[in-house]
């Protein structure tokens, strides 16, 4: 029940649980939560078949489970669809080495389609925040660069979060504003 059937990685709940333990047992370490997203994954499923999409997910899972960003202090899981999640100590050099190697690995997947990955990273600055919320912040970061073919990873920025909250507040007020002919 703790593992995803397709990828054999920890499922979302197990990832949250194990990452919470990792953070609690290593409060002196500065960690990062990272969420991945594959550009046009639905197109891969549509054009090449769900089996090919599943093969790609298994291919990715195989690599990220055997080649972690940090050998000792890393958790990895599968959230859903084309979203993988990681927690590892913040180390820009190690991350960039992993990223370069991973991108080379992805190029070796036999598919006549350019596979584009995006990664959103959230530097954990408050250990009391739920791991699920940390993942949401990493997802917010990844959404902010989707479609940008020059930038493939970015860090969470609280100003972007505030902008989204303001936008949602406007949306929430629209119905009453329209009803009042404002």
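-> sequence recovered:
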């Amino acid at each position: 029940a703790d593992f995803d059937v397709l990828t054999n990685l920890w499922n979302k709940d197990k990832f949250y649980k194990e990452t919470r333990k990792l953070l609690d047992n290593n409060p002196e370490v500065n960690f990062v939560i990272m969420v991945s997203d594959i550009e046009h994954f639905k197109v891969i499923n549509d054009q090449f078949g769900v089996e090919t999409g599943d093969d790609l997910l298994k291919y990715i899972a195989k690599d990220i489970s055997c080649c972690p960003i940090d050998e000792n202090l890393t958790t990895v899981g599968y959230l859903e669809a084309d979203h993988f999640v990681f927690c590892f100590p913040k180390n820009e050099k190690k991350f960039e080495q992993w990223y370069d190697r991973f991108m080379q690995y992805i190029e070796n997947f036999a598919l006549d389609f350019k596979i584009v990955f995006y990664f959103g990273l959230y530097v954990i600055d408050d250990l009391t925040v739920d791991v699920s919320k940390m993942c949401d912040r990493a997802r917010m970061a990844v959404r902010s660069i989707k479609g940008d073919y020059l930038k493939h990873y970015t860090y969470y920025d609280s100003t972007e979060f505030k902008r989204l909250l303001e936008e949602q507040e406007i949306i929430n007020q629209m119905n009453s504003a329209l009803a009042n002919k404002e």
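The two ends are 52 Å apart (CA to CA).
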